[in-house]
Write a structure and sequence with these properties.
DUF4158 domain-containing protein, mainly alpha
């Protein structure tokens, strides 16, 4: 591996230690979902453009969209983790800095 690659991996490790976040602690923060409100803004949901729905149905539609978005985001996160483990295989017994950077990704 080139020296430049090793330095890039080292920077990845350094940054990952600074920007670590936790969805429960940093996003949810002990709050519960208010089912009396929409889960997504109208600009993202477009539920307000569905004239055949009344206000309660629009709110419910937004909640379904919000939950679907969250599940899709979780699926993408699982895929990224699995892909990084697969990609890191070439470093398991080699460059430990590269392995750590890929696992932290």
């Amino acid at each position: 591996m080139a020296a430049g690659d090793s330095a890039r991996y080292a920077r990845c490790i350094q940054v990952s230690k600074r920007v670590r976040w936790d969805i429960d602690a940093d996003v949810i923060r002990g709050r519960d979902f208010d089912h009396g409100r929409t889960f997504l803004p109208d600009g993202l949901s477009f539920a307000d453009r569905l004239d055949f729905l009344d206000d309660d149905e629009r709110r419910f539609f937004s909640q379904v969209q919000g939950r679907t978005y969250a599940w899709m985001f979780g699926l993408v996160e699982r895929f990224i983790g699995a892909k990084m483990l697969q990609t890191s295989g070439q470093h398991w017994l080699g460059d430990q800095r590269a392995l750590e950077a890929l696992v932290r990704f």
